[in-house]
Amino acid sequence: MNSSKYIFVVLTLLTMVSEVKATDWSDKERRISKSYKIDSRNRLNIENSYGQVKVINWNRNEIKVDIQIKVADATGTRADEALNAVKIEDAVTGRDISFITHISSGGSGGSWWSKIIHIGDGDRNLEINYTISMPEGNDLVIKNDYGEIVVGDRSGKFTANVGYGSLKAGNLKSASNQLNISYSHAAITALQGGGLSVEYGGLTIGSAKDINLSLSYTGDARIQSLAGKSSISIEYSRGFSAGLAAAINSLNLSAEYSSVALRPAAGANFNFNASIEYGSFQTDRNQATISKQHEENTSASYVGYWGKKSDNTINISSEYGDVRIK
User: Fold this and answer.
1) Which of 2, 74, 135, 259 places its Cα 20 to 30 Å from the Cα of 172?
2) Looking at residue 14, what is its pLDDT?
3) Is the separation of the CB atoms in 153 and 173 below 8 Å?
């Protein structure tokens, strides 16, 4: 057989193998849709994994939950088993409406779950996606692992727990929001109050006020504009930066093994007290006045004000990291 015929035969065989594999895929899907008449006192609770939870605002006294369960198996043998193993539990208890995703195990040689979902295995896939339509003002609780949470503006209290995924949110207007992010990135247009914890992830916020923020082992974390009264704790993080709005009232910031950059806006005035160990402190001497300064080999403290003396206060404690106000 000459070389050209050999190449033709090989390519033909490869094409046949590819076509056979493509036709072996078994795709299964199941959909669930439920609606509830509500008033402003109802709260929705969602607990899910391996999919997206998306919330759409509408002007109806109703909550609608649409769920899509998708399974793909290249071997064509376990798709039905996987689809049947996903159970959605829904309940109404008082003012709470709840949906919980359950994934059961079974079969010999371990659960189907270890066979269907395996990181790096392109032959199997499972998605459990929620699309929720509800009023903006109702309280909302979402827990989602291995997937993203997408919400628009919320005026009701928003509680979110996301792991190994992402959070994308609009203007969170409640003063009592509670967000817990782990191994994930959060992007928030505005956070008007509440608590936020990020571990092993990243954070981007457009504007924030009156927040309690905790960062641990994170990548870059940025707040474009920070106002009101806030408390921030940072440890073992790549870097934290925040713009200080003219409406900043107080900030208590502690940092360990992390760098901090604060950028005062035009018109911002505040007193500051910075205590630094094993790091440096930098500021713009054209804008800042240091009234008291004490420096030793490994530590230093600086007391002064930015712009002009004010009742607004910034307290900073930092170990093993640099601090910059400029």
Assistant:
1) 259
2) 40
3) yes
Number of Cβ within 10 Å of residue 76's Cβ equals: 12
* pLDDT tens readout for residues 310-325: 999 999 999 999 999 9
Residue 212 burial class via C-beta count within 10 angstroms: exposed 0-12, middle 13-18, buried 19 and up? middle
List pLDDT tens digits, range 7-66: 343 344 344 433 434 445 578 899 999 999 999 999 999 999 999 999 999 999 999 999
Give residue limits of the domains in the chain: 25-150
CA nearest neighbour of 193 among 155, 163, 166? 155
- For residue 247, give every residue at least 6 positions away whose Cβ sits within 8 Å of its Cβ, in sequence order, or none: 209, 227, 228
Please tell me whether the overall predicted TM-score, pTM, comes out greater than 0.85 for this model.
yes
The phi and psi torsions of 39 (rounded to 5 degrees) equal: -130, -170
* pLDDT, mean of residues 111-135: 71
